[in-house]
Amino acid sequence: MMKLSVVSLALAAVAVPATAAVGMDAKSAGAGYTGIASGDFTRAPLNPALLTRFEEGDDLYIRLGVNALAKEYEDALDQVDDTQDAIERFEDKINAMDPTDPPTQADADALLAELEALDDTRLVGEANLDLGIFVPSDTLAWGLTIGGYVVANGDFDYADNDRVLVEQALVTGVFDPDQLQSEGVAHAVVVSEVALNLARELSLPGIGEFSVGVSPKYQRLDTYLYRANINNYDNEDYFDDDYLSDDAGFNLDLGLHKAYGNWRFGLVGYNLIEHSIDNMEGHTLTLKPTYAAAVAWQQGIFGATVEADLVEDESFVVESSAPQLLKARQLVRTGLELTWTHAQLRAGYVTDLSDNYEDLLTFGLGISPWDCFSLDLAAQFGDDEERGAALQLGWKF
C-alpha cells in the first residue's frame, strides 16, 4: 500500500511550478490583506496607481515575498495516516488468519470508523510568490512583477459500498484493499503572471490631482486534478501529464488612487478579461473580474483602512458535481498600522459577506532600518486550525 504522505497533500498548496493573489505581500497580509488605498509605490501590484505615491529620495524598490495559508492541515494529515494504517492492519490480519487471534467484527468496525472519518477530512491551502521591481514617478512610473499564486484542496470521501467489502472479508477471508471505493482527490489551480505596472498622476477641474494605473500582464493557468482509491493514492503520480492542463493569455488590472488631506481612496479592477480553462475531467474553471474599493486615514504614526469587494468573486468556483476548489466570496478587510522610523506594527481582520469562509485575524511586524532594507513578517489565524504566514524582503534605493 502506498502511504499518503505529507508531501502528497501539502505540496498541492505550496510546491507547484509557480505560486492568494500576485502582489499580496507581507505588509498587506499583516494588515488584513489591505493596501489598495493605504499603500505606497512598494505595493503597486495591489493597485498600480500607487506607483505615484512615494517620498523624496525614493528611486527604486526591489522585493521578494512569499505567503502561504492552510486550513485543517494537521487534522487532515493525521486522519489520512490513521486510515491507511487501519487498512494495513486489517489486511494483515485477514491474510494471516491466525486461529488464535482471528479477525473479528471489532477489527472491521475499527477500519470502517477510520474510512467514515474521511468524509470530514479536508485540506485547504493557498500560497503566492512574487518578485517585484518598482520605479516611482509623478509623470510615468513603472514596475515589473513576476510571480503567481496557487489555491488547492485535498478532499477525501467515504464510499458506503466499502462496508460490504470489509464485512465480507470476515466471511471469505479475502480482502483486496485496491477494491475500496473511498478515495482522495487533489485539486489545484495555479495562476502565473508577468505584469508590467504603469501609472501617472493627472489633474482635473473639480477633482484635483489623482493617479491612474494599469497593469497589462501575460497570464498562464495550470490545473491539477488527481483522483485515486485511498489505498493507491500516490503522490509521485500527482504531477503526471495525465492530470494536468494549462492555458495562457493576456489580462489587465486597472487602478485609481486619490489623496485628500489625511484621507486616501483607492479603486481597483483585477483580471478584467475573463479567463477559463478545463481540467482533465472536463470541468471549467474561470478566473473572473473582481473589483475592490478602499478608504484609508493617516495621522502621524497611525494609519487605518477599510476595503471591500464590490461584487461577489466566483473565480474558480465549479459546479457541484465537480471536486470543489473555491467557494464564492465577498470579503471586507480592515487594517491598522503603526509606523515608526525603523519599525511597523500591523493588525487586521477579514470577514466574508457570503458566509462561505470563516473570519481571519492577522498580525504583522516590519523592520526597516534607515528605510534602505526592509523585513516584513505576518501571521494569520482563523477557525479549524487555519494558519498562515508571510515573509517579504525589500531593498529601497
Task: Give your account of this protein's structure.
The chain has helices at residues 6-14, 26-30, 73-96, 105-116, 161-172; strands spanning 61-71, 122-135, 141-157, 183-204, 208-229, 244-260, 263-270, 275-278, 284-287, 290-299, 302-309, 331-339, 343-352, 360-367, 373-382, 387-396. It has 397 residues and is α+β, with helices and mostly antiparallel strands. It has one domain (6-396): Beta Barrel (Porin), CATH 2.40.160.40. The strands form 2 sheets. Strands 1-2-3-4-5-6-7-10-11-12-13-14-15-16 form a 14-stranded antiparallel beta barrel. Strands 8-9 form a two-stranded antiparallel sheet. Helix 3 (73-96) packs antiparallel against helix 4 and helix 4 runs antiparallel to helix 5 (161-172). The longest helix has 24 residues, at 73-96. It is elongated, with a radius of gyration of 25 Å.
Layout of secondary structure:
Layout: H1 6-14, H2 26-30, E1 61-71, H3 73-96, H4 105-116, E2 122-135, E3 141-157, H5 161-172, E4 183-204, E5 208-229, E6 244-260, E7 263-270, E8 275-278, E9 284-287, E10 290-299, E11 302-309, E12 331-339, E13 343-352, E14 360-367, E15 373-382, E16 387-396
Helix pairs in contact: 3-4, 4-5
- Strand element count: 16
Spell out the helices and strands N to C.
Answer: HHEHHEEHEEEEEEEEEEEEE
Average pLDDT across residues?
A: 89
CATH topology: Porin
Helix content: 10-25%
**Continuous helix count:** 5
Described by strand count, sense and barrel closure, the largest sheet is: 14 strands, antiparallel, barrel
Give the class from helix and strand content and strand pairing: alpha+beta
Q: Biggest sheet: strands side by side, in what order?
A: 1-2-3-4-5-6-7-10-11-12-13-14-15-16
Q: Termini distance?
A: 56 Å
Signal peptide: 1-20
Coiled coil: 66-93
Keywords: Coiled coil, Signal
Pfam families: TraF_2
